[in-house]
Design a protein that fits this description.
548 residues; eight-stranded mixed sheet; 15 helices; 22 strands
């Protein structure tokens, strides 16, 4: 059984030393060729021979792990329990890195034929050689391992993984663009797996939504870009994709001004494939609508996506690889979130709805509850929380971007719910306050949202000071808030429950350790949400409680 290798696709079946050598030799002449291997430069330097290795583990990024001649080695395309032949593409004193050239002993229950012809050299995916069931199982195992090793924490309960469609799910993405004058072509795709400074030219993408990732649309985009005026075609570094329920937006980043002939070509693309095309000449503030489909009468309406809540939930299980059955209850609702195409929102719409429902399930809000949602974005969690059937007393959303806060307020009004939103840089204020304490400086004025909470509690004797906290931070985590924020250190506020949504297992494990060992919380339940199938990215939903 052939494994995955970084060789020219036209060479044939992977696993042959002569094939690999022929591909490397053929690639030396031109690194601009679409099907040249990613590892051209490394091939002549360190690829002397194959090595055989038994894979005994998996790394945090989904690579196999074993020892080659006693030296620890990560292996792209390998799966724990297999025996594979590998070639090294990078070496260091502590760890070598290799890729599979042949699978000697395969685990047929885990290994599958990759769906995509570009897999192995395109950096968009890294796990497509695994069955989807094995991908989800591995992600959960790696999350639990990091949680124990980094945070010294074990959850009391592991809930079923949240999974949705594993193709055509990616409604957000930033595609790289590179014009190749030598071949008079324009590459559009993700960065190459091991050479991120080069672009993997795609004929289609199975993980992108079909409105952009299908073969005919990808071909049309490339054809349009290569037909642009000479100055412009080499000055478009990226396309940003944003799909909504009512259309698909494409932001064209360009470094020189558009000419009318360029606008005409882009308008033709918009009309033929029902795309809303935006222009970005400089920073985010320069983004402007450029072309709307002529046959779409609603093309000027705001982009929006929907979240459905109020469905029956699955019973807690260790491993469930199929999406839960969506049976609506009497409290079923559909929430509408409007956004601009450059704003952050969750990539996987199906899994996002499941995630919101799981967060609501953990919170179980009641009429007297106060809920604070930190890193609230455009209100993806805040608004459904505020609209629960047993309406909480107060819901506050805090976000570091004034633009996102304004959009969250508009979305709250759109959905008819009452929330309070505050603009506050959550990544900075906790650390700044700690530095002030260490330097003996006077306490700076109370933060607006903290002041609002305190006054709300003090002015109404019927209000409890118990708070449920939702954390949905970026990849850097929330350690400054956990360790330095007055929200967890002030007796005025009794944070009894935290629901933590994380996109980074290592920073989550660090933060979970701080919550458990420094602040007295218990990790009651944890689940994985597979927001990015076929990649090593993992979303986590965790439920922490503490008693007073």
């Amino acid at each position: 059984q052939a494994g995955l290798v970084f060789v020219r696709r036209s060479v044939g079946v992977a696993g042959s030393e002569s094939n690999a050598a022929a591909a490397a030799a053929a690639a030396v002449a031109s690194t601009d060729d679409d099907d040249a291997p990613v590892l051209v430069r490394e091939t002549r330097r360190v690829f002397q021979q194959d090595a055989n290795v038994a894979l005994t583990d998996m790394t945090h990024n989904g690579h196999g792990f074993g020892h080659v001649r006693g030296h620890p080695t990560t292996v792209f395309g390998g799966i724990k329990g297999e025996v594979v032949d590998v070639k090294r593409y990078r070496k260091s004193a502590k760890m070598d890195h290799a890729y599979v050239t042949d699978v000697v002993e395969a685990d047929d229950s885990k290994r599958v034929e990759p769906l995509c012809e570009h897999y192995g050299w395109c950096g968009g995916c890294g796990l497509m050689h695994m069955s989807y069931e094995e991908q989800v199982r591995m992600k959960e195992e790696l999350v639990l391992r990091q949680l124990e090793l980094i945070g010294n924490v074990v959850p009391e309960l592991i809930l079923n993984a949240l999974v949705g469609p594993n193709t055509g799910y990616r409604r957000r993405g930033r595609l790289s663009v590179r014009h190749v004058p030598k071949h008079n072509k324009t590459k559009v795709g993700w960065r190459k797996l091991l050479y991120p400074d080069t672009v993997a030219s795609l004929t289609q993408c199975h993980t992108l939504v079909p409105s952009v990732g299908s073969a005919d649309v990808m071909r049309a985009i490339q054809s349009t870009l290569v037909s642009l005026s000479p100055a412009l075609r080499k000055s478009v570094p990226q396309l940003e994709i944003a799909q909504a329920d009512n259309g698909t937006a494409v932001i064209v980043r360009h470094l020189v001004d558009l000419e009318q002939e360029d606008i005409d070509l882009l308008q033709q693309l918009a009309d033929e494939h029902n795309l809303r095309i935006y222009s970005q000449r400089r920073g985010l503030k320069s983004i402007r609508p450029l072309c709307t489909p002529a046959n779409d009468g609603n093309a000027k309406d705001a982009l929006f996506y929907s979240v459905r809540t109020g469905f029956e939930h699955c019973e807690p299980l260790c491993y469930v690889q199929q999406p839960p059955v969506e049976e609506a209850t009497e409290n079923a609702k559909t929430w509408r979130f409007e956004f601009e195409p450059h704003m952050f929102y969750q990539t996987n719409g199906s899994v996002n709805s499941m995630l919101v429902n799981r967060v609501l399930e953990h919170l179980r809000v009641d009429h007297d509850d106060i809920v604070v949602d930190l890193f609230c974005g455009i209100g993806n969690l805040t608004i459904p929380i505020a609209g629960e059937a047993r309406k909480p007393r107060l819901v506050v959303g805090v976000e570091g971007s004034a633009e996102l806060v304004d959009q969250a307020r508009r979305n709250a009004a759109l959905n008819g719910v009452e929330c309070e939103f505050f603009d506050q840089d959550l990544q900075q204020f906790g650390q700044a306050r700690e530095e002030e304490r260490q330097e003996g400086a006077e306490e700076r004025p109370e933060l607006p949202f903290m002041k609002f909470l305190r006054e709300f509690i003090e002015n109404d004797p019927t209000v409890s000071n118990r708070i449920q906290l939702v954390l949905d931070p970026p990849r850097s985590g929330a350690i400054d808030i956990i360790n330095n924020s007055d929200l967890l250190r002030n007796d005025t506020f009794l944070v009894s429950r935290i629901v933590y949504v994380s996109c980074n297992p290592s920073t989550f494990a660090r933060d979970a350790g701080a919550l458990v060992h420094q602040h007295g919380f218990k990790l009651r339940a944890l689940s994985v949400a597979d927001m990015f199938p076929h990649t090593n990215h993992t979303e986590i939903i965790a439920h922490f409680d503490r008693d007073y």
